[in-house]
Structures are given as C-alpha cells and as structure tokens.
Design brief:
Layout: H1 2-22, E1 47-52, E2 60-63, E3 69-70, E4 78-79, H2 85-96, E5 105-111, E6 120-124, E7 130-132, H3 140-146, E8 159-165, E9 168-174, H4 176-180, E10 196-199
Parallel strand pairs: 6-10
Antiparallel strand pairs: 1-2, 1-5, 3-4, 6-7, 8-9, 8-10
Length: 204
C-alpha cells in the first residue's frame, strides 16, 4: 500500500513538472517581486529649494540644469543629479563652509522629474502618455491613475511592460482590462525604475 501511494505521488509530481515545462507565465518572477524601494534621486529638470539656516540671502529655489548641476549665489556648477536631497545638502554645506561658519543646509525637491533611467514611461493608448518619476512602492495601478487610464481604443489585456533586468531587456504581458474593468487585483504589479508600459491599439 505504501509503495502504491509513493508511486502515485511520484506520478503526480512528474505530471506537474511536465505541465510546468509546457506553459509560459505571462509575468516572470522578477515582475512580481517587491519594489527595490530606492530613495528619490534628483534629476535634470527638478527644482530644489535650498534652505540655509540663518542665511536667507543664500536660501533660494533653483532648477537642476540639463547637465545635472545647480548654481547658487556662493556655489557654482555643483553636481546635483543622481543624489538624494540629503546628499546634496551635505555637498552644499561643504561648499559653503569657506564662506559661512558651520552652515546648516536643508534641500527640498519641489518639482519631481527624476533621472531619465529611473522614469516610468507610458506609450500608446493611454489617456495621457508621458514619463513619470518613479515613486517608492509604485504599482501598475498608480501608473494608470497618473496617466488618466486608457483610451477606448486600447487593447488593455495585450499591454506589456519592458523591463531591464541584470542589463538585459525583458518583455511581459500585463492585464490592464482585468485590472481596470474587472477589479482583478492580481493584475496589479509592482513597478520598477525604468519600466516602459506599452499599451497597443485594439484592431476590431
């Protein structure tokens, strides 16, 4: 009896292995992992509000130039892109130390665009196709809300995400119709910095 049960269990396991080898999941394992949760990195086009304690004359809001640098009254051409607000604040303190005794600086990002390689780009049949700054714990639903959903011509369940994993691009299908129209929360995926959401047009 024991031997027969063992043989049945082995047969079931073998069938499951065969079935698993014959099916390809629409979403790879890398797509459903939790987000990597990076801190926001400043990018060209962002605006940063620089507050120097007890020194209002050098406190101001400045844009991050296309070359990734900022300029303030006492600090010229200071690299800002690719840094967190805290890192930039420490760099400004170091630069101001030759003019101000023990400067205390706070940097607040007031216009979020972010580094190009960390933006979420949405193309195709979105209501408002655009590039979005990646935010911590950003999901596919968050992206759809930001772009106003999809158009009436969209083939939502044929949409795809292009993602770079270990230097290689992967493409997998996502189910926007199931998520938006049917409320199928299992179709809501974690986004990663640099993801490209492609929403094709439906051909009747």
């Amino acid at each position: 009896m024991y031997m027969m049960k063992s043989m049945v269990a082995a047969g079931i396991a073998a069938c499951m292995l065969l079935l698993g080898g014959c099916t390809t999941p629409a979403v790879p394992a890398t797509a459903v992992l939790a987000p990597i949760n990076p801190d926001y990195l400043i990018g060209p086009g962002d605006a940063v509000n620089i507050i120097v304690w007890r020194n209002p004359e050098v406190s101001m809001s400045v844009p991050v130039r296309p070359d990734g640098k900022i300029t303030t009254p006492l600090v010229e051409d200071l690299p800002a892109a690719g840094k967190t607000s805290t890192q930039l604040a420490r760099d400004i303190e170091q630069a101001l130390a030759q003019f101000i005794q023990q400067p205390v600086v706070t940097v607040v990002v007031t216009n979020f665009i972010g580094n190009f390689n960390e933006q979420i780009r949405v193309i195709g049949q979105a209501a408002r196709p655009q590039a979005l700054p990646y935010r911590r714990d950003m999901s596919l639903m968050d992206v759809l809300i930001a772009v106003g959903g999809v158009t009436e011509f969209a083939a939502g369940n044929k949409a795809s995400i292009v993602r770079t994993v270990d230097g290689k691009q992967e493409k997998f299908t996502v189910r926007l119709d199931d998520l938006i129209k049917d409320g199928d929360i299992s179709a809501n995926l974690a986004m990663r910095p640099g993801d490209i959401l492609i929403i094709p047009e439906s051909f009747f």
